[in-house]
Design brief:
GPCR_Rhodpsn_7TM; G protein-coupled receptor activity; mainly alpha; transmembrane; three-stranded mixed beta sheet
Length: about 325
């Protein structure tokens, strides 16, 4: 009986965003700029919401953790992506690939539920303002964030374990710029029914549950705003959740575009474009959305810069 010619894959080759050689350097500088802005913006939000006394509220506590998640999400993807623009052989080891997938899942699931928690926070603030500090107390805030991280880590562990329990023994070329689930499943020479089922159930549960929380929160927020007699009160109430509404629309719009498109129209190239958006572009946009439309954040930035200048002059 002839021996079977099966060799277990020990490394993967990433095709990247584009395989055109002339585009590698321009794309490197484009994504380096995006990552630089992402780092600066999210670190700025983390710093301001940590040191400014007027931003020590539940809303900015959750915003700080959203910035941490955005920073983690882009950092899991961007450095390896940038290196691959500069090298001819875009390889990643088996364990490095598994770690990247796990990290990506931790942060993307955490972002989904952090946005839902932030919607609930706005609901309580607008619809039940007298009970706000009791319902969204510091202890409850820590509990909600801790549960979000714990659940996202558990989900990432289960899903990535399922993906990398499969055998990869033929092609090792991943048609993507990072180790994502669908491209990895297409490479496996094992039966992928169980992992695909687990991935589908997990993704559908996370998306539907978080979307229900967001939609129910904003449905009640809109009803509460419409009941207000003062136009100034309506304007103030709307302004407190306008930034979050914009961030939610961009993020969930991208995810729904990915998951609700007809299977006949699905392509890995479309998946790449959507992945660039929610792994790199949205983490860059979120600090801008929350700072440019938020008077408290802009005032905190001015105070921080003023204090920094005073400290520098006194040296």
């Amino acid at each position: 009986m002839a021996p079977r010619n099966l060799t277990q894959v020990t490394e993967f080759i990433l095709t990247g965003v584009s395989d055109h050689p002339d585009l590698q350097i321009p794309l490197f500088f484009v994504f380096l700029l995006i990552y630089g802005i992402t780092m600066a913006g999210n670190l700025g939000i983390i710093t301001l919401t940590s040191v400014d006394s007027q931003l020590q509220t539940p809303m900015y506590f959750f915003l700080r953790h959203l910035a941490i998640i955005n920073l983690g999400d882009s950092t899991v993807i961007a450095p390896k992506m940038l290196i691959n623009f500069l090298v001819k052989r875009k390889t990643t080891s088996y364990y490095e690939c598994a770690t990247q997938l796990g990290g990506f899942l931790v942060f993307i699931v955490a972002e989904v539920f952090t946005l839902a928690v932030m919607a609930y926070d706005r609901y309580v603030a607008i619809c039940n303002p007298l009970l706000y500090m009791a319902v969204v107390s510091p202890q409850i805030c820590i509990l909600l964030v801790s549960l979000t991280y714990l659940y996202s880590f558990s989900t990432a562990l289960v899903v990535s374990s399922c993906i990398f329990s499969l055998s990869y023994c033929s092609s090792n070329v991943i048609n993507h710029f990072f180790c994502d689930i669908v491209p990895l499943l297409t490479l496996s020479c094992s039966d992928t029914y169980l992992p695909e089922t687990i991935v589908f159930i997990s993704a559908a549960t996370n998306l539907v549950l978080s979307l229900i929380i967001v939609l129910m929160s904003y449905f009640n927020i809109i009803l509460s705003i419409l009941r207000m007699r003062s136009s100034e009160g309506r304007k103030k109430a709307f302004s407190t959740c306008a930034s979050h509404m914009m961030a939610v629309t961009v993020f969930y719009g991208t995810l729904l575009f990915m998951y609700l498109q007809p299977q006949t129209n699905y392509s890995l190239d479309t998946d790449k474009i959507a992945s660039v958006f929610y792994t790199l572009v949205i983490p860059m946009l979120n600090p801008m959305i929350y700072s440019l439309r938020n008077k408290d954040v802009k005032a905190a930035l001015q105070r921080f810069l003023a204090n920094s200048c005073c400290s520098f002059k006194s040296m």
